[in-house]
Amino acid sequence: MASDHFDFFEIYARFCDIASRSDHTSSKDLLNMLSRSLESRGNMRDAIFDDLSKLMSCLRLSVDSRQFNCFYDFVFFVCRENGQKNITVSKAISAWRLVLTGRFRLLNQWCNFVEKHQKHNISEDTWQQLLAFSRSVNEDLEGYDPKGAWPILIDDFVEHMYRINQSSNCSAQEFCCSCTDMETPGITNILS
Amino acid sequence: MIRDILMYMDRTFVPVTNKVPVHELGLNLWRDHVIHSSQIQNRLLITLLELIQDERMGQVINRGLMRNITKMLMDLGSSVYQEEFERPFLEISASFYKTESQTFVECCDCGEYLNRAEKRLNEEIERVSHYLDPKSEAKLTDVVEREMITNYMQRLVHMENSGLVNMLIDDKYEDLSRMYCLFRRVSGGLSIIRDVMTSHLRETGKQLVVDPERLKDPVDFVQRLLDQKDKYDKIISTSFNNDKTFQNALNASFEYFINLNNRSPEFISLYVDDKLRKGLKGVSEEDVEIVLDKVMMLFRYLQEKDVFEKYYKQHLAKRLLSGKTVSDDAERSLIVKLKTECGYQFTSKLEGMFTDLRTSEDTMRDFYASQSSEIGDGPTLGVQILTTGSWPTQPSPACNLPTEILGVCERFKSYYLGTHTGRRLTWQTNMGTADIKATFGKGQKHELNVSTYQMCILMLFNSCDRLNYKEIEQATEIPASDLKRCLQSLACVKGKNVLRKEPMSKDIVEDDAFYFNDKFTSKFIKVKIGTVAAQKESEPEKQETRQRVEEDRKPQIEAAIVRVMKSRRVLDHNNIVTEVTKQLQARFLPNPVVIKKRIESLIEREFLERDKSDRKLYRYLA
């Protein structure tokens, strides 16, 4: 078991090493190789989150560090399956909840929104841009620029939040936007 | 004479001693002692002004005298003319026209006011030419323009019941052209006319295109648009001096409101369809061209030209396959026009359709030439071979053809595939027509012109007199919606009801029964039974077309993005959107969200990547 963890740590170290290189094509090949060796470990689809949380607790990442960027990208990298480019919505949500807790104030709303409205897989671009998004907006979505080239999913999320805030303002359900349970009847009506 | 006598002095003495020459001295003395004398100065001015006032009121005055006096003042130096006459004259003119325009504007309508203003202006110009310094003209007209036009422009244009809008509605060419000429003289005048015209046009145009009543009849809808365009074209050419800025305003307004209704492309194509089916019968070639040019003009206003193309293709296909087109020349001429407007790509498939039909004709001729001995008495088959991709065909399951037809179809199939190896033939039974002979109760014979589906239904009644809906459906396997439409046109249209339905209701339901109607009569030998066809698209059909258009746009948008990125290598998001929109606007107006989606897809497929440091920047990955 212990050697497994050592493996995972090593893979992470190699990932960071490759990611910091500037040469695009060669790093891509290296990543592919790394991904294959990751896969050869086998039987780790469910264990991956355990590994990640262990890794996270060891790394003691600060919010803005470059190390966290690398770790965040690494999470996407290990969540991919069978050489696919994207990851499934359910996996993405679990991963977000794991790595962004305490780092993204709208995490709960975001995950609920994605769960409900996103049918396709999550692309790497959307994954990466969410981190940038979580850093550039506050709770009230201040700092969001509609012309800011955000992925569509993020645009839709913002619009969705605006709508909820608006209708909750007029219908006196003031705490809807911060309430965690999205299934309350008031919200369901607004969404439909 | 005095100058002649003193000429020598003038020449030698005056220049040397710096004295004033005799002639000038005379003038100066005259000025100081006569014109500036306290007794004369005022009286002269008052007399002059009174005379002019009299003339303005319509009296005849001695213009010769006036001219001599002003000439004299001018000879005394332009400052004398200006000080002694022109300045007070302009002042009194201003107050005269101030009061006059006030009374005019109270009692006249806009047209009459303009008429009077124009007359006054001309009078003043004439006055200058008769007895004033030509240099006064500009100053004088300035005064009149200011008092009569500038001060009242807004009021005139918006005058109730007679203002600009009413003139436009009632085609008052003379008044309009008067307004144009007068307003052109003052700054900002034309832009007032233009703005009011534009907003009026947009308002009426908007009402026209969103009025649900109008949407019921596409042909009428387009005709109204064309009439509106004609009307304003004529106004601009006859009254507004073909002013370019006005034409641009007109075009912009049309572009604005035509695109308010997203069915405009469909309707314009339907209008063309109507014209090319019947509207242009017996019309001379030049007139056809005029109609087509007008259609092209509306086409130019469309933002979604690709939607028009889609509909046009559908309608053209129906026209061509049913042989309904009035004139091949007109069809071709329109295609040439579309080609010059939008390029080769736009029309290549349309041209392909024409080629298909020509080749089909040859193929059929060859087919019959090769088979003449074996076919004998069977039905005559006409096949139109359509290239997949060129035609807007939707794959539809072939219905069961009657055995009589099936035989000759098979024969043709083996002939065709024998001469063209490697091809595949599928029958589009939903698009054909048939001529069949039928004998009714009293022995009268009629030739029925029906669709292929209807033919299949009718042939069933050769063997029995009564069939219910289910039986027909089973025997023919025609899709339910088409079958219902066919039966409706065979049994429910008066004068063409070769079938009888029980119960006798308008709509077809599943447990209806159908009988051969042997009491059928018609005064025509040939009876054409049209399918109750939906002229305009129904809501679901519209949705479907929309969706297909959206699908077709995706690769075009992606191609445009790649083209832009290939040349720029690195570009930020908003600039890509602008460039792509610019590239595509000849065909349609891409939605920025859709463009974004395409960019995301291209990132995923690694055509593009986001810049590592500036996330709004995209890089092209070769």
From TrEMBL, chain B:
PROSITE patterns according to UniProt: CULLIN_2
Ubl conjugation as UniProt keyword: yes
Any one GO molecular function term: ubiquitin protein ligase binding
Boundaries of every Cullin family profile domain copy: 263-491
Organism: Asparagus officinalis
Protein's recorded name: Cullin family profile domain-containing protein
Keyword presence, Transport: no
Sorted UniProt keywords: Isopeptide bond, Ubl conjugation
Listed SUPFAM superfamilies: Cullin homology domain, Cullin repeat-like, Winged helix' DNA-binding domain
